[in-house]
Specification:
Blueprint: H1 3-12, H2 16-22, H3 26-58, E1 63-71, E2 73-74, E3 87-92, E4 95-101, E5 112-119, E6 139-146, E7 149-151, E8 160-161, E9 168-170, E10 173-174, H4 186-191, H5 213-219, E11 253-255
Parallel strand pairs: 1-9, 2-10
Antiparallel strand pairs: 1-5, 3-4, 3-6, 6-7, 6-8, 7-11
Length: 257
C-alpha cells in the first residue's frame, strides 16, 4: 500500500465521536436562546429594582398628626387682643403657612388656637409631602396680623423648632417692644413703675403680694397693688415668655408689603 495515500485518507476520515461533538444539538440551541433572552432581561430587571428603591425614598415620609399652638395674644398694655379680623399665622422656611383667627374663647386665658400640618420626616433634606407641612426640627415664627399690619410678637424675636407631631404647645404672644428681653413690654413696664432696661425686674415682686411682676402682667393685675391678685395664669409656662430673649433686642411691628 502506498503510505502517502493512507495518510491522506486518514486525514479525511471523521470518527463517530467527533461527529457527535460537532453535530448541532437542539438542547444546546435552546440553552443559547435562554442565555440570550436572560441577557436582555437583566438590564430591565435592574431598572425595575432601582425604581422600587428610589421612588419610596422620595415619598417614604407620609403626613404626620398635626401640632397645635394655643394661648393668649395681648397688646403692649397686657390686654387681650379683641379686634375683628385679627389672626395668627405661622412663618417658616416653607413660607407663610397655617393661620387662625384671634377671638374670644370659651376656655379662659386663650384667644387663639392654631393647627399646623406636620410631616413625619425629621430631616430638612427630604422633600416634604406638601409645602404646607412642617417638620419637628423646622424653625418657625408665629406672627399676628391686624388689618394691613403684621406684628412680630416679642416671644418670636428668635426662631425655635416646632416640636413633635400630635403635640400641643402653649405660646402666649405679646405685641410691642421689649428692650430688656424680660418678656414684659416696655409700655407696660413704664406704666407700672418698672424699668424697661432692667431684665431682672420681671421676676421681682413690686407690691410684695407673692406674685411676680411677670405673673401680674399675665394675669392682668396691677404689680403695685397687693390687694389686686386676680386669677393667676393657669399654666407653668410663664417663664417661657423670656426664653431666648437677649438684652437690647426689641421686637415690634412690620408693615406688610
Amino acid at each position: 500500500m502506498n503510505p502517502t495515500i493512507e495518510t491522506r485518507n486518514a486525514a479525511k476520515h471523521v470518527w463517530p465521536a467527533d461527529a457527535a461533538r460537532r453535530a448541532p444539538s437542539p438542547l444546546n440551541g435552546a440553552r443559547a436562546g435562554v442565555r440570550g433572552e436572560n441577557d436582555h432581561r437583566l438590564p430591565r430587571l435592574a431598572a425595575v429594582l432601582l425604581l422600587f428603591l428610589v421612588v419610596p425614598a422620595a415619598h417614604a415620609y407620609p403626613p404626620a398628626p398635626d401640632h397645635t399652638f394655643y394661648g393668649m395674644v395681648r397688646n403692649e398694655w397686657g390686654d387681650p387682643i379683641d379686634v375683628s379680623g385679627a389672626r395668627v399665622f405661622i412663618l417658616s422656611t416653607n413660607g407663610a403657612g397655617a393661620a387662625a383667627p384671634v377671638a374670644a374663647s370659651t376656655q379662659p386665658g386663650i384667644n387663639y388656637r392654631l393647627t399646623v400640618p406636620m410631616d413625619s420626616a425629621r430631616s430638612l433634606k427630604v422633600d416634604p409631602t406638601s409645602a404646607s407641612r412642617l417638620r419637628q426640627s423646622q424653625p418657625f415664627q408665629l406672627k399676628v396680623q391686624i388689618g394691613a399690619i403684621t406684628y412680630l410678637p416679642i416671644e418670636m424675636v428668635l426662631t425655635r423648632p416646632i416640636g413633635e407631631p400630635a403635640g400641643t404647645t402653649r405660646l402666649d404672644l405679646t405685641l410691642g417692644v421689649d428692650t430688656d428681653g424680660d418678656g414684659l413690654p416696655d409700655a407696660w413696664e413704664v406704666a407700672n413703675g418698672l424699668n424697661p432696661n432692667d431684665p431682672t425686674d420681671a421676676d421681682g415682686d413690686a407690691d410684695g403680694d407673692g406674685i411676680s411682676n411677670r405673673n401680674e402682667y399675665l394675669a392682668g393685675t396691677y404689680p403695685f397693688d397687693p390687694s389686686d391678685v386676680g386669677p393667676q395664669p393657669p399654666f407653668a409656662g410663664a417663664a417661657d415668655r423670656s426664653d431666648g430673649h437677649t438684652a437690647g433686642v426689641a421686637a415690634g411691628l412690620e408693615v406688610a408689603g
